[in-house]
């Protein structure tokens, strides 16, 4: 086997020393967290373009196109209205139950579809990951942006439902903006966690529908939150009421509805919401970053 | 440092790459067998290790174009992916100057999007600024030649023929100046006139002091573009040297 000639100055060096001498870097080196964050910022245009492309391409094959972005939440609300408002006619005591219910359904849907899209944000883009070099976190973030955009359209529909249901428009509605921000950070963390976790453990994909169903029932979406207090006591009640989805949903209800009974006083809910989004956001990001170099393995 | 000293751009130091493959349902994958496996804590027989690259060492220098040859499944594409940093090595190390870029035929962009939007997305993914993308977009589409038979750049990529999309992908990747460019079978696709153009582009990239690796089963494109050849067989290097010599050995081997 003919050996490659090594230039005189480099003679006698081992390959590793030769690499160091010429300042070559180890392929597949994990960038530090601040470096990675800076790279992500440099790729912000890519994130935006990718999210925009996803929105266009997901509706590209439908006749109605972008109309579906409004139609989907409207139909969603209509289904719940027919079942709970007309057929079952539950909770006659709560005259704003339709609004109460729709807020829960829409807000929960936001996180639920984020989790689902998060599972595919690495595995569904494997061709791109194997071909091009870019910080992989751009993919879950762009997935999150798509969901945030869809939710913002859904929010407008939701505002309409709440107004039609007879709730007054107040300054308190402005609180929706910071809640949306907190929930979005929470979702991004969750998406990043799911994106990496399914690449390591694809079996979890089979379990997620059940976990989400369980989470839905534990988040006081389909019934008033006060029902927990009648069946649970002490620390168990505390645990159930610390559920991040319940916290977010209660905050939206606090912002949009008049005279609802909340799980906790608003101040406590706000603290819980901030804590959840900071913890989940940071942990999700760090967990995802640790796996950065292995995503191409598929 | 003397001027005539050659500058290494890629160094592979005893690199091993092992894939862990999770096999789909097959024999012994019934629910009962799976439970038994979990209960008795035996190793999952569905996971197999594939030792794709076994201790490869070489040094590539600036301005070189290196052809990688070998029979199917000899580890060529795997090695390129590892050089690009897209696949972690299990043992040993691969060192590279800057960020090597892999250009392959299976580089999936978004099939639902029209060609020109894919160009924008691809360029942004390579780290270009929006201004650079705007400046280069028309040039890329023109180079790819997809508009030669009508306005195809505004049609979704899924309507393209395989040759057309491969041409577009090559054009996107070749638009950027790379320190190290890794080309996986990309030159084989496309018609004769595009092949000529892309080979000229590869020479241009090399002249701009980069290193080019080329995987191809087309002897002609290896002979035309590379002066050095590495022959991989079953994950190890069989030969490394001037193209003409290595090709002769390889031909003698494959005729057997």
Give a structural overview.
- The complex is a heterodimer of chains A (298) and B (256).
- Chain A contains 13 helices and one strand.
- Chain A has 298 residues and is mostly helical.
- Chain A has one domain.
- Chain A is elongated.
- The two termini of chain A are 34 Å apart.
- Chain B is of the alpha/beta class.
- Chain B has a single domain, classed as P-loop containing nucleotide triphosphate hydrolases (Rossmann fold).
- In chain B, 36% of the residues lie in helices and 27% in strands.
- Chain B is built from eight helices and nine strands.
- In chain B, the strands form two sheets. A six-stranded mixed beta sheet of chain B has the order 5-6-7-3-8-9, with helices on both faces. Chain B has a three-stranded antiparallel beta sheet with strand order 2-1-4, covered by helices on one side.
- In chain B, helix 3 packs across helix 4 and helix 3 packs parallel to helix 5.
- The N and C termini of chain B lie far apart (47 Å).
- The model of chain B has no long low-confidence stretch (mean pLDDT 78).
- Chains A and B meet through helix 1, strand 1, helix 3 and helix 6 of A and strand 1, strand 2, helix 2, strand 4 and strand 5 of B.
- Strand 1 of chain A pairs antiparallel with strand 4 of chain B, so a sheet runs across the interface.
Quick recap:
Chain A is mainly α and 298 residues long. Chain A has helices at residues 15-21, 33-42, 44-58, 67-87, 97-123, 126-131, 138-164, 176-200, 204-217, 226-231, 234-241, 244-256, 266-290, and one strand at 25-26.
